[in-house]
Amino acid sequence: MNIPFRLLIAVAISVASCCVTAITHAERVSLTPAPLSVTEGSGSYTLPKGLTISTAGLTPDMAAEAPRFAEALNSATGLNATPTASPGADITISVDPSIATEGYTLSITPSGIAINASQPAGLFYAFQTILKMLPPNVMAGVLERDLAYTLPEAQIADSPRFPYRGFMLDVSRHFFDADQVKKMLDLMAAYKLNRFHWHLTDDQGWRLPVPKYPELTTVGATNQNILRTNFDAQRRWRDGRFVEYGPYAYTTDEIRDIVAYAKERHIEVIPEIDMPGHMVAAIHAYPYLSTDPESSLVPDSVAMDSEPVARNPYSHFTHNMWNIGGVSRDVLDVSKPEVMTFVQDVVDVLADLFPYEYIHIGGDECPTFAWAKSDSCQKLKKELGLDDDSGLQAWFTKQIAEYASTKHGRKIMGWNELITNHEANIPIIKPYDPVIFCWYPPKQAVATSEANGLKHVYTPANGGYYINRSYKGHDKVGAVGDGALDITYTLNPPDNQHCIGVQGTFWTEQVDRPQDLEYQALPRLIAVAEQGWSQPERKDYNDFMKRLREQESVMLDLAGYNYGRHQIVAAPADNTAQ
Ligand code: ACM
């Protein structure tokens, strides 16, 4: 993990007191997320200083996992583990094609370790399991030379319940820089999460560079103010006015670096461009994207310290950057060819930067008010024979899916409005095999996905998977809602044929600092990870809490994450991020 040097010094002092917890790990297998099956023996295996890891007979892709594991191990333990091409070694690896892509078996005996896997991902998770079974400074990446690194004798057979185990971060409402994104990726890898859903654009800020449209990441990445939480209003108010927020955007190099960093951790990055609604940042930069480019009923300066909606009901159409929560009526004009060109140009950039099967096109919360008032949208609606304005969204979605598929061989993901909207047109998008993110209302979204044979991801807004929500209404950061850990842990994903997994979703209207992001997301994201990886019969809330208290909290402390301690011990009356 990326740990600043000053933190290393700070935790080095505390590690000694962690050793008691750490060393007890050797006595029993206690893993988060809980593995499929474990049989424990009575012996143990102490890693030798010159541990060898055989890569004999492995493909280059699989062999590449060994030096990364050795480096992680060595940097935290002071051991000198090395990969070797010779067959005999302390850790041996065999390819077993019958094992699932992300699965593995691990045999730890007093004479060494034998791993079986079929793919690099499975081997990676076997190595992660070894790191996790060692004292918590190892997964935290904190050097401690004076421990005996001992593993309990055990046979482990493991494989995830779901192929999609995600974390979504909204970097539009508030921006989180590349280092913080990497810190979250480290955490995901520690808990075997494998999809980073990057919500890159919204009404409040555009964070993706698109060379043909440079103002997206200047004008479109600067807010006059940003949402007024107790905390950030204080931070942004200077000399009688709000200080500008931004411009904040990633560079192309940063994005490529993050994608590569995630790939080494077997995490696919799924970029989201939310459209045709939630597009005010782009419209602010390029007003022609709106149905009413000339509209400017409230001058920019007024919006600096006003609530636009309260001031003027028409300010939905000022094209000022949106600086409150909720939903703007100012959306893409889907009837304009130049808007479709813009969307295609954005999809081209996504296809270039993100090498995976899917791109996420949002599709949530798109009001049709603007289309109802637009002559050209009404004309298009008539030409298409639609009864309702929201049918235009289905048509728009189909255009993007078609383009992504024919031009780039990519598929789309989207929020459940794609299939639950009034006038959603499932038959025209179904051939593109979209993945549906079930957030609200989740029961209807899941049932409609399943009935139509559409893959879906479970991330209900209410019930613990929106992990920005405050804890029992106590936290001063995060959106109001019941974000209690036990709810997240016990709200099980549907046991559907087409449910491909779960996601912890993090919106940032009320969260603008890394420490608040971590405080709200943790430890609930760990509960989501266990929902995604562990079979229902392997889950046990009391055992999970014990693991959090005794092990995960130590690891999080050592690695410098600011988690919500009150979710693990008793909740104080007034919880505040530190
Ligand atoms: C959403 O929460 N608007 C997907």
List all distinct small molecules, including ions and cofactors, that are bound in this structure. Answer: acetamide
Strand segment tally: 19
The rounded Rg comes to 25 Å
Structural class: alpha/beta
Distance between the terminal alpha carbons, to the nearest Å?
22 Å
The low-confidence runs, each spanning 5 or more residues with pLDDT under 50, are 1-26, 297-315, 571-578
Helix and strand topology:
Elements lengths: L4 H20 L12 E10 L5 E3 L5 H4 L1 H13 L4 E3 L6 E5 L8 E6 L2 E6 L2 H14 L2 H5 L9 E9 L5 E7 L7 H13 L4 E5 L1 E2 L2 E2 L23 H7 E2 L2 E2 L9 H13 L3 E5 L7 H6 L14 H4 L4 H4 L25 H17 L4 E3 L8 H5 L1 H10 L6 H18 L2 E5 L1 H4 L5 H4 L5 E4 L3 H10 L4 E3 L26 H6 L8 E8 L7 H8 L2 H10 L7 H19 L19
Parallel strand pairs: 2-3, 4-6, 8-9, 8-19, 9-14, 15-16, 16-17, 17-18, 18-19
Antiparallel strand pairs: 1-7, 5-6, 5-7, 10-11, 12-13
The structure holds acetamide.
Structure, explained:
It is built from 22 helices and 19 strands. Helix 18 links the parallel strand 17 and strand 18 (456-458). Helix 12 (337-353) crosses helix 15 (391-408). Helices cover 37% and strands 16% of the residues. The protein has 578 residues and is α/β, with parallel strands linked by helices. Mean pLDDT is 88; it is low at 1-26, 297-315 and 571-578. The protein is elongated and about 75 Å long. The strands form 5 sheets. Strands 14-9-8-19-18-17-16-15 form an 8-stranded parallel β-sheet. A 5-stranded mixed β-sheet has the order 1-7-5-6-4, with helices on one face. Acetamide binds next to loops. The site of acetamide has 5 residues, from loops.
